[in-house]
Design goal:
The protein is α+β, with helices and mostly antiparallel strands. It contains 9 helices and 14 strands. The strands form 3 sheets. An 8-stranded mixed sheet has the order 1-2-10-7-12-5-4-3. The protein binds gibberellin A4.
């Protein structure tokens, strides 16, 4: 990244930083996918936080490492070469600008289409990178589907594939993202508090489910219901799952789509890879009838994923996107 002036760099700092209250600091729910009783804990985590960590997931380290080393190679290549893979409209390389509405973050990223034989991805080393992405995405998608089926079981839904079939559909509108947060030398030189540098501003994910894997650099923070932020201890061998807005709607608000953000590290780089499992564009998203108990009102108006996605992509990161689809 090129050196930046002090005034340019100011826009990357968080305006307010509510401290974490150590007395209320909760443990991140831990789900062991190999244990049969994990269904119950998994649903509890979705209801309490919308966020949990998964271990014994069965995805090989080799598959993760192959992709990570391809991505490291890409982000350490010359800027001009990386820019050949951009802009991210909607897929490709992006640098500092996030979305189309003025959000910025101390981050470089690749947004990739995960449909088979996608022609949108503009990478310069397609063969190795694409193979690594395909293998990795297939593995995390299968894990996401397993998790969604466990959720449906525990919610006593007749069709245990009700959520997972949306990701398995050939037309599923899922996305894959690799974020690279470089260290910020300007912060170190000027001894400004590096803890407040925005890597990726606060937001909820619009899709159904997100599967995140990061290296061992900290930075991810989740927002608790009292508005405080909790730093998530990194764990490169586990996955972190979060509920997206669409799953919150399908469960009529039982599951929470969690607000999260990334604070950039002033000394160490951080790399994360996230699979966003989304439904087909024409899919109607609404609370499941079987989850609407007697007397319970549907909290949301029905919308298609196309409509929601459009409205999300025309908003800023921190916008409360579900607000305009709430009934009350
Ligand atoms: C957040 C989740 C995913 O990273 C993403 C993001 C998308 C983008 O980077 O283009 C958005 C953001 C995300 C929601 C609001 C809009 C669109 C940036 C932004 C300001 C790929 C997605 O699907 O929605």
């Amino acid at each position: 990244m090129v050196a930046l002036s002090q005034s340019t760099i100011q826009q990357f700092f968080l305006k307010t930083c509510k401290p974490v209250n150590p007395l209320t600091f909760p443990q991140i729910p831990l789900i062991d996918l190999s244990k049969p009783d994990s269904k119950h804990l998994l649903v509890k985590a979705c209801q309490d936080f919308g966020f949990f960590k998964v271990v014994n997931h069965g995805i090989s380290l080799d598959c993760i490492n192959k992709l990570e080393s391809q991505a490291t190679k890409f982000f350490s290549s010359p800027q001009l070469l990386k820019e050949k893979a951009g802009p991210p409209d909607p897929f490709g390389y992006g640098n500092k600008n996030i979305g189309r509405n003025g959000d910025v973050g101390w981050v470089e990223y690749l947004l990739l289409d995960v449909k088979p034989d996608s022609h949108y991805n503009k990478l310069q080393h397609p063969e190795n990178f694409h193979c690594a992405v395909d293998d990795y995405v297939t593995a995390v998608k299968n894990m996401a589907c397993k998790i969604l089926e466990m959720m449906a079981d525990e919610l006593n839904l007749e069709d245990r594939n009700v959520f997972s079939k949306l990701l398995m559909d050939e037309q599923s509108d899922s996305v894959f993202r690799v974020n690279y947060y470089p260290p910020c030398p300007e912060v170190q030189e000027n001894e400004i508090d590096g803890g407040n540098l925005i890597g990726f501003g606060e937001h909820t994910d619009p899709q159904i489910i997100s599967v995140l894997r990061s290296d061992n650099t900290s930075g991810l923070e989740i927002s608790l219901q009292d508005g405080s932020w909790v730093s998530v201890p990194p764990d490169s061998e586990s996955f972190f799952i979060n509920v997206g807005d669409s799953l919150q709607v399908m469960t009529n608000g039982r599951f929470k789509s969690i607000k999260h953000r990334v604070v950039a590290n002033s000394k160490k780089s951080r790399m994360s890879m996230i699979y966003f499992g989304g439904p087909p564009l024409n899919e109607k998203i609404a609370p499941l009838a079987s989850l609407l108990e007697r007397e319970e009102d549907s909290l949301y108006k029905e919308f298609t994923w196309f409509e929601y996605k459009n409205s999300a992509f025309n908003s800023t990161l921190s916008h409360n996107r579900l607000g305009s689809f709430e009934k009350f």
